[in-house]
Amino acid sequence: MEFRYLGNSGLKISEITYGNWLTHGSQVENEQAHACVKASLEAGITTFDTADVYANTKAETVLGEALKGERRESLEIFTKVFGPIGPKGHNDLGLSRKHIMEAAHGSLSRLQTDYIDLYQAHRYDYETPLEETMQAFADLVRAGKVLYVGVSEWTADQLRDGAALAKELGFQLISNQPQYSMLWRVIEGEVVPASKELGISQVVWSPIAQGVLTGKYVPGQELPEGSRATDDKGGANMIARWMKDDVLERVQQLKPIADEAGLSMAALAIAWVLQNDNVATAIIGASRPEQVFDNVAAAGVTLEPALLAKIDDVLGDAVVSDPAKTLESSPKTREV
């Protein structure tokens, strides 16, 4: 495992992060989830990402139990706040001071820790003044309950506004967590350049495009049993945009490129996002320990320019790169 600094800070994190979105407390039984966390630790992963909204707080509970007994100082635990949790009442979501404070204390309890290494605004909240949100984060930092602050799926302008307020309040934004993969490159045009100016790193999710870039979905063939594409709890909806024959056929053509690199297709996809020098870490998910060991093979890999060019040629216009797509990530109004 190799390590990278997170933003303009002294915090080092593993360049592969284990995340439990759509798995812990939902798709994967607790025993299997614990096995995946153990495999991550064995593979050298020290950074773990979750969110209170995952499985309506259950994912945090499972991760807290799985990490119990590990040396806390040797771990970097990330979580997020924004989405509706609990009974999903009118103040059970968003980035108001009330919800941030209540959510932070809930996360600390479920994760069985005294502090959160990186607390992230899971989306941008259009209904709460940004000043209120950033003040709440500042107070959590000063109280020692949060060490660093990040965001997720914010636009370049939102990052600039948030970073300016953070600076006024005596802390800094050091990370953004966007979707990023060979197929989904919308951050490259605006978010990455702004982040470099501001001292913000990317903590990227879905580097294998919800499993599509593993090559397991073959045009004209039955969907693999138990795969993300067959999950009626949300996974199938997330992967639907890639389940088109043209995209799947192009992905199949990546197999010889992965072979040339000496990597599985999943590891190739993860190594690809890590070639971006603004990416601090790639978040992987797993339902089986062997998936973890396969994915961490991407750590420390350098892909030559000629190989990267081959990937671009194969994927062609299947790649989504419109920067405006980031603006669509955050809801313009709260759900309740």
Automatic annotation (TrEMBL):
Residue ranges the record marks as coiled coil: none
Chain ranges of the NADP-dependent oxidoreductase domain: 15-314
Pfam families documented for this protein: Aldo_ket_red
SUPFAM superfamilies on file: NAD(P)-linked oxidoreductase
Species in which this protein is naturally found: Auraticoccus monumenti
Top-rank taxon, per record: Bacteria
MF annotations from Gene Ontology: oxidoreductase activity
Record protein name field: Predicted oxidoreductase
Family recorded in the similarity comment: Belongs to the shaker potassium channel beta subunit family.
One cellular component (GO) term of this entry: cytosol
Key words of the record: NADP, Oxidoreductase
Gene3D superfamilies: NADP-dependent oxidoreductase domain
Entry-linked InterPro entries: AKR, K_chnl_volt-dep_bsu_KCNAB-rel, NAD(P)_OxRdtase_dom_sf, NADP_OxRdtase_dom
